[in-house]
Amino acid sequence: MQNASPESRWFHLCLADDLASPNAFVTTRVGAVPLVAQNIKGRVVAFRNVCTHRFAVIHGEPAGCGPLRCPYHGWSFDADGVPVGLPFNPTDFQLEAEGRRRLALHPAALARCGRLVFVRVATDGPSLEEELGNDLFARLAALSDAFPRCGDAVEPEGDWEHIAVNNLHIASAPGRALVLHSAAPPGAGERYSRTVTLYPATAPAMIDAEMPA
Ligand code: FES
After folding, report:
1. Which CATH architecture has domain 6-110?
2. 59 CA to middle of ligand 1, Å?
3. Going by fewer Cβ within 10 Å, which terminus of the chain is more open, N or C?
4. Distance 160 CA to ligand 1 centre (A)
5. Alpha carbons 167 and 20: distance in angstroms, whole number
């Protein structure tokens, strides 16, 4: 898949935890295409981060919490991408239900592997599991589930396991820590790169503290 166009490739975006709250969103770019993944009333969906009215970028920040609402004329969109809140619609736009549906946001593909969230510009194509292969998919899912706690950043050491998947570099030490570094996809600025360090549910220090002397 390394020679495939960026639009047809899956890119790691964030953790499912980042999108767990209502209105939480995470953005990126792939080539010239801005993308957003957003929690809308409990559904996590992905779209091109471009308003269908006059093509303004909807969310300008790499991540945050706020409704999927265009800052230009204030259109807001539901989980199907359909504009549902249009200020001054009766006088300025006069859009009925069918007209609104025609102006739905362009969807993007979104997939989870354990707690890892990936996005792709193209809505058609191999699933994430097909692209990664069953073994790697299962390995990444198990790793992400084994380290549920975000914590202080650490530098991976030489004897850690390293796995590279598209823009995602994973470094892990069994039972100690998992470092996820997501490079910005092609065409995206450095502000879209992300690094997070995850830890097991129970810190080793706590386990030691609970052990009888
Ligand atoms: S450009 Fe988005 S509401 Fe007009």
Report:
1. 3-layer Sandwich (2.102)
2. 12
3. C
4. 48
5. 23
* Secondary structure class of 120 (helix, strand, coil): strand
Residues whose beta carbon lies within 6 Å of some atom of ligand 1: 51, 53-54, 56, 70, 72-73, 75
b vs e for 152-186, b when ≥16 Cβ sit within 10 Å of the residue's Cβ?
eeeebeeebeeeebbbbbbbbeeeebbbbbbbbbe
Query: Digits of tens for pLDDT over the chain (213 positions)?
Result: 556 899 999 999 999 999 999 999 999 999 999 999 999 999 999 999 999 999 999 999 999 999 999 999 999 999 999 999 889 888 888 889 999 899 999 999 999 999 999 999 999 999 999 999 999 999 999 999 999 999 999 999 889 999 999 999 999 999 999 999 999 999 999 999 999 999 999 765 444 444 343
Index of the ligand 1 atom closest to the CA of residue 74: 3
For every residue of 133-178, DSSP letters joined together read -HHHHHHHHHHHHH--EEE---PPPTTSEEEEETTEEEEEETTTEE
CA–CA gap between residue 122 and residue 45 (Å, rounded) = 14
So where are the chain's domains? 6-110, 133-210
Nearest CA to ligand 1 atom 4: 73
Residue type, position 188, single letter = A
Nearest CA to ligand 1 atom 1: 54
